[in-house]
Specification:
about 400 residues, alpha/beta, Rossmann fold, TIM Barrel, 2 domains, six-stranded parallel beta sheet, about 35% helix, about 20% strand, binds cobalamin, binds iron/sulfur cluster
């Protein structure tokens, strides 16, 4: 290949209720999916998997204006070989992803879309929903599953002009050990809140909450990065002035490699004197894991996000969140307070037993009984990829609607 391959990695934003694309001068958090694919793509570039050069342009539409006409023009000016990979597309972003793809396809540019919407729909629904079929009819390639160990393939297909309409790897979850880790250059991170980077130290969760998509897309078995890989990615970020990290594992307490990872980070902090902070997500039984909370604090955890979800036991049973034991919430929160961590919990409204009165009562109990720093409310939503969504879809709902 003599021409330089042009690879665009674009994380789309989504529309607000009036149809405007939601954007900020600086967005809150860098997209970890963009970082994951940038890590994989730069590894492909360095290994010269196409024989020639690959130019990578990465952007998050929540903080960067995306101009499909200019992208098409620039790919053509560079010789016409390239791919626009629209990455990490969640269900609420799928319509926006299609609107970015449409003018590119009309200009003859190759486009692929991946992320939780495509993966979740293919994991759970017996038939491909209309919105995905329409995307394929536009000549967009859909990618279901994870790209670790197979990003070479999609670049090689795009370089040869032979992208397949559908890549479906839902039955083949790759191991994460030794895979190129997530990374974003500092100038991208500066477009977000500050010096915060992100990485997934693992994927998968053993529990079975019915509103959850993760278990159906990333599986219930814990897959994880090695302590060596986590150390290397933190050092690489520290070298570019990024020293706070959001570990995006949905439940880091159930990452089977949490202890070797923590031991390495503790050595970096306590022996070498390196300074960095972590934000993690955990479950309400994490305080039962010997040493987990104490080592979290020593490894640099400053904030924890906890899936508290609800305090009504009938509601928790209705969504199969049996592991949440109300009586343990207080002990768990006190254990985090004892090591000086800020606790931030998610609370879901809209469970089968919820009424206005029961919600008001529950919130008063939380205020009185639970030593929490911050409580964030969410509406129970049947997200594509979840068991709840599958049941509604099979019962005849046309969700998601075609665009
Ligand atoms: C971190 C995170 C966030 C962060 C940052 C987002 C990000 N992507 O980094 C923040 C806090 C901003 C966030 C916000 C929200 N999030 Co969120 N988030 C996550 C979380 C926990 C981790 C994301 C991640 O890093 N995954 C690891 C990456 C590497 O996996 P991946 O995205 O699937 O990408 C891999 C493959 O899909 C593939 N791939 C992806 N794209 C492409 C493209 C191509 C071309 C190819 C070849 C391959 C490919 O390769 C990647 C590497 O293997 C996920 C759950 C999860 N476990 O993934 C939820 C999740 C993605 N979020 C979810 C939701 C619902 C939201 C919110 C709507 C919540 C809310 N009510 O506000 C908002 C929406 C934000 C928005 N902009 O609209 C849902 C999406 C479900 C769905 N069907 O859409 C998830 C799955 C969690 C859940 N509740 O089920 N989120
Ligand atoms: S604990 Fe969290 S990640 Fe695990 S199944 Fe429940 S909602 Fe999903």
């Amino acid at each position: 290949m003599n021409r330089r391959f042009q690879l665009y990695l674009i994380k789309p934003s989504h529309y607000d209720d009036d149809g405007y694309v939601i954007q900020w001068y600086r967005s809150a958090i860098p997209s970890n999916t963009l970082a994951a694919l940038y890590g994989l793509a730069s590894d492909c570039r360095d290994r010269k998997v196409l024989g020639g050069e690959i130019d990578i342009f990465e952007a998050d539409e929540t903080n960067t204006l995306i101009r499909p006409d200019r992208i098409a023009r620039d790919i053509k000016a560079a010789g016409g070989v390239g791919l626009v990979a629209i990455v990490g597309v969640q269900s609420n972003q799928f319509p926006r992803a299609i609107d970015i793809a449409r003018p590119l396809r009309e200009a003859g540019i190759q486009v692929a879309i991946g992320g939780f919407h495509v993966s979740g729909c293919l994991a759970m629904l017996p038939e491909m929903p209309e919105d995905l079929k329409q995307a394929m009819a536009m000549g967009i390639s859909l990618y279901a599953g994870e790209a670790e160990g197979r990003f070479d393939e999609i670049l090689q297909d795009a370089a040869a002009g032979t992208l397949r309409p559908l890549y479906n790897y839902m039955d083949d979850l790759p191991g994460m050990e030794g895979q190129p880790p997530p990374f974003l250059p500092r100038e991208r991170i500066e477009r977000t809140g500050g010096r915060l980077g992100s990485f997934d130290a693992g994927r998968g969760c053993p529990f079975q909450c019915s509103f959850c998509t993760i278990i159906n897309v990333q599986g219930r078995k814990s897959r994880y990065r090695t302590a060596d890989d986590v150390e290397a990615l933190i050092r690489r970020n520290l070298a570019q002035g990024v020293d706070r990290f959001f570990i995006t594992d949905d439940n880091f307490a159930r990452n089977r490699n949490w202890e070797p990872i923590y031991d390495r980070l503790i050595a970096m902090r306590e022996v070498e004197g390196l300074n960095f902070g972590l934000l993690i997500q955990i479950d309400t039984l994490c305080h039962k894991i010997p040493g987990f909370i104490e080592k979290s604090a020593r490894a640099g955890v400053k904030r924890v996000f906890i899936g508290l979800e609800n305090i009504d036991p009938d509601n928790l049973i209705a969504v199969k969140k049996k592991q949440n034991r109300i009586g343990e919430y207080r002990n768990m929160l006190l254990a985090w307070k004892a090591v000086g961590c800020f606790t931030y919990a998610g609370y879901i409204l809209g469970f089968p037993n919820d009424t206005v009165e029961s919600i008001q009562r529950s919130i008063r109990i939380v205020q009185r009984e639970l030593p929490l720093d911050l409580l964030e409310f969410f509406f129970l939503t049947p997200l594509p990829g979840s068991e709840d969504h599958k049941k509604l879809h099979m019962a005849g709902g046309n969700y998601p609607p075609p665009f």
